[in-house]
Amino acid sequence: MKKAAIAIGSNSTRLLIADATDGGLANIVRGREETRLFSALDENGLLAQERILATAQAVARLHAQALAAGARDVSVLATSATRDAKNSDALAQAVQALTGCRLQIISGEEEARLAFRAAAGTARRLVIDVGGGSTEMTLGENGEIAFAASAQIGSTRLLRLCPIACPADAARAREIAANALAPDAAQLASLPPAPRMIGLGGACTTAAAIQSGREMHGDAVEGMTVTRAEAERQLAALSAMTLEERMRVPGLPPTRAAHMPHGLCILLSVMALCGHDALTVSGKTNLDGYLTA
Prior knowledge:
Layout: E1 2-8, E2 12-21, E3 24-34, H1 49-68, E4 73-78, H2 80-84, H3 88-99, E5 103-105, H4 108-119, E6 125-130, E7 135-141, E8 144-151, H5 155-161, H6 167-189, E9 196-200, H7 202-212, E10 225-227, H8 228-239, H9 243-246, H10 260-274, E11 278-281, H11 286-291
Parallel strand pairs: 1-4, 4-5, 6-9, 9-11
Antiparallel strand pairs: 1-2, 2-3, 6-7, 7-8, 10-11
Helix pairs in contact: 1-3, 5-10, 6-10, 7-10, 8-10
């Protein structure tokens, strides 16, 4: 049976359409719209009305794509930015009005569990998902989760806290990221470690794309390795550039140019705190985990 799910993230809204099989998902089709919901949160925690409407319209377009592809059941999820918003009900109402779908706002821990289910496989793995508003870390093996947590730090949230215009700014941003991630990392340290770390989310996939010198997404980045040394090289280069220069970097989508250094700060902080010198990149998302549930 063909299934579909849409996730409203902090930076983008994504669609996954797939046939559910006993072995997982097949005939996968992915869609994406840049909606930048986190940047629409004001100092009072309210989403701007125009961004609510624009996001709901993006959901409606992806919903129509799913129906046209034959999906009988379409779920709509929302993550960090919507969790933070005091007027998330307005977004839920707009989505339901345009699509007929009820918006499910998932917790950070559930987001972590979905990322693990999407990418971990059966071996003992640490799965990280670096998003725009939050970063999830999940440890487990054979489908059993030993630890799952969501830290209130993501690439766009860190951009708001500490814009990066030079290497000194990057050093400050890394310190902020490390402080936000440290409590969860300390809990992870009390458990038997995983021999490999898997990375999901825009910071991880874009780091792989920059390493390759061309824009890549989804299956194209699946299984690629990004070392800590490579992430350090990218951060040093990007933090010394102007925004216009970053927008010309091969592999870096212009829409990610402003917050990619912040994503690297988070990625490097996780690597340092958890003792990993490399990560295996996955093009899967929490939607893969949701549809295989």
